[in-house]
Amino acid sequence: MEAFPDLVRRARARLLTMHFESGVGHIGGNLSSLDVMLYLYHHVIQRHDVFVLSKGHSAGALYTALWSIGRLTDADLRQFHRDATKLSGHPPVKGIPDVLFATGSLGHGLSLSAGLALGKRFQSQPGRVFCLMSDGEWNEGSNWEALIFANHHRLENLSLIVDSNGLQGFGTTKEVADIGSLAEKFQVVFLLTEEIDGHDVKAIAEAFSRDVKGPRVIVARTKKGCGVSFMENKMEWHYLPMTPAQYQHALDEVNRA
Fold first, then answer.
1. Would you say residue 208 has pLDDT above 80?
2. Number of folded domains in the chain?
3. pTM of this prediction?
């Protein structure tokens, strides 16, 4: 099996190439969430499990993770964001069996995931539901309702992961709408919660190895633009596409890591 750091390096390079060739931005949040997605798809998600990408603008990281396990091809990735593609800028509602919902509008993924988890229970279906969200999504009231729902129904098959990179479309999460510690808020709703370094494979592995009872939350502290020094912790890389010079710089840096 490929060593995880090598997998991350290869996937980062492929993601950068995909975004550069398509001329598409949203690179920063893709790089912050890629490590967790790769670990989920390579070491956690099983046949009957479901993954929901609530932060739909990180579709590039999802497509790269699916490419890394052979569900998508290089030819597929070359069609990212093109006309008539199945790899749209946000996850599509049709065309990719692993994608159940179009999640371009933020704040809905957790509600959908909680409904799936409860549905699995009602129908005695095996498998778990994993939902990856952004920290900026917690400006949305629907997420807090979904938390209450998940705790009330004790959805033991539901795992929520928050890509907590501290930046969103118009600044830092503290500047836009400061709600303090997300982990503390989740604990108030009596959810099993832990914070980890979202780029440390050992920390990620330990978090997902725990046998927990009840809905659980993993707050993954991450860096926007992780792995590319001129992108890291920079709000503008929520949006910007790369110039040829920036792409070459980023690719060289990732390949040297």
1. yes
2. 1
3. 0.96
